[in-house]
Amino acid sequence: xxxxxxxxxxxxxxxxxxxxxxxxxxxxxxxxxxxxxxxxxxxxxxxxxxxxxxxxxxxxxxxxxxxxxxxxxxxxxxxxxxxxxxxxxxxxxxxxxxxxxxxxxxxxxxxxxxxxxxxxxxxxxxxxxxxxxxxxxxxxxxxxxxxxxxxxxxxxxxxxxxxxxxxxxxxxxxxxxxxxxxxxxxxxxxxxxxxxxxxxxxxxxxxxxxxxxxxxxxxxxxxxxxxxxxxxxxxxxxxxxxxxxxxxxxxxxxxxxxxxxxxxxxxxxxxxxxxxxxxxxxxxxxxxxxxxxxxxxxxxxxxxxxxxxxxxxxxxxx
Length: 318
Fold this sequence. Notes:
Structural class: alpha/beta
CATH topology of the largest domain: D-Maltodextrin-Binding Protein, domain 2
Helix content: 25-40%
Shape: globular
Distance between the termini: 37 Å
Largest sheet: 6 strands, mixed
CATH superfamily of the largest domain: Periplasmic binding protein-like II
Number of helices: 11
CATH architecture of the largest domain: 3-Layer(aba) Sandwich
């Protein structure tokens, strides 16, 4: 039994429990401009030609830009340094400008290991035969979206999403799992047209931006991922005008996805070594704290089957 199999045996798959899908259409996400930059163990520098080929001895990691760039730089710069020491490899964090860039650069083989949301992970895996989910945080097997409103709306916390229908509303990124896909699904389940908000829904681009837009009153309501909401609230960084309205049911979300070409360059056991590293982060609480997690666990593609089904139904996966 490989090291990965041994680790997986202690980490059961936790499927999302959601009601059957009604079959309806949904507007597909618009195309986004592609760009990328690279950093080496916490130092940033522009990439002149991201498609020029991979360094055979370097592991290039990245992540969807779902938070402020400074937060991401601190998190993934730390991860790159920690991973390099643990795996005895050169590891660089290469930031991307948007969700679509992360998927595109992974598909092209310009990124080896990417921290994707549920939807973007499915998109990248379907476009990259042989790509394999490696690990997720323990909280990602039971993840939630948080609907927030500006206090001026006068809305009190509720499980009823229907009052949101008449408000100016913003999602996060157009292909965010927690900031668009699953909220749209749950809104529709309660009879709210996820595209029918006054003036059409907004797309802030990130969870932090959603908080800022709702705080300013540019939008009366919005939705973001639970982990960012809890982290910003605990840090006292949420404007008093923004209040939690509702929390969604649970679903699987973020995970690390490994490109198949990476093992060809860095060893057939790369996936096993990466899983061992992530599960072993319990010995590095400073890294786990940056992820807002207690632990990482093994994961597999089947955990995101429901995400794929919903994505196809909403027109976000073709």
